Amino acid sequence: MRVTSGDSPALAVGRTATLRPRPRRIAQTTLRRFLRSSPLGALAAVVLVAIIFTALFAAQLAPFDPTTNDYGAARQPPTATHRLGTDNLGRDVLSRVIYGLRISLLVSITSVVLGVSIGLAWGVTSGYIGGRYDILSQRLIEVLTSFPTLILALLLSVSLGPGLQTVITAVAITQIPLATRITRSVVLSVKEMAYVEAARCVGATPGRIMFRQILPQCVAPILVIATLNLGSAIFAEASLSFLGVGILPPTPSLGNMLGGVLAQSFKPPWWLAVFPGVTIALSVLAANLLGDALRDFLDPRLNKRLG
């Protein structure tokens, strides 16, 4: 902004401040553009937030203790007292679904954050340093990707033993290869740009260049990868618990709820299979739809068309 001779410095600063977009206005504009670009993705975000809210406040929302047995009310269909029915030991299915959702989200979110963070750091260093380090890194990533995700998680869980930490570790390792490859591809296209070369010319260290110039360019694709991986992590945790190598009873998990009831009866009561299964499907669907919406929203061509 040009300051005329009649303007005081304070007035000039005030005018400059008014010309800058406020963070609240930027957030509102971004939200409107996201709603315009993908209403279904916005709905998925609302569903996912509701699921996370339910998991966080499970103790306040669950009507019963999920591990308390009531043999007099065993295998009851949905009633006014037990809205989703009871299982073979008389435990309230609604309470177990709510607490199982907490376990599933704890495992999936923790494993995705851990795996994607490792993949982000690995991809940035591999793409920028290059050479033998990059070659060895890619060969190791190829070894990891040669195993199907569920098979790799199953092998790790069997070797380390069932439990919460084992499931988080196993699922996190399966998240590393994709995050590493996506990050490396972004780094290879960014490290030759003019502003990176300028940082090298002024004497910036490789660590500073990777952290200040290259890493911010990887945030958008990694955010999309993390959201998409959230659905696969929920499914992987449920599958491991279903097979008996994940979260062990009596701790409720959506996967072991399905696995336990199917192991005890050839044709279980419908409410014991439908409600945990629908919860898993809804969580995975919401995460995948949100990831697809973020991928489209962060596409510069779509952004230009909507802006």
CATH superfamily: MetI-like
**Helix proportion range:** over 70%
Structural class by secondary-structure content: mainly alpha
Do you know the CATH topology?
Answer: MetI-like fold
CATH class: Mainly Alpha
Instruction: Outline the biggest β-sheet.
Output: none
Rg from Cα: 25 Å
Unreliably modeled segments: 9-19
Q: How many distinct beta strands?
A: 0
Describe the model.
With 307 residues, the chain is mainly α. The chain has a single domain (39-306), classed as MetI-like (MetI-like fold). 74% of the residues lie in helices and 0% in strands. It has 14 helices and no strands. It has helices at residues 9-19, 23-37, 39-56, 58-61, 93-129, 131-145, 149-160, 164-190, 194-201, 206-214, 219-242, 254-264, 270-297, 300-306. Helix 5 packs across helix 11 and helix 7 (149-160) crosses helix 8. It is globular and about 75 Å long. Residues 9-19 have low confidence and may be disordered.
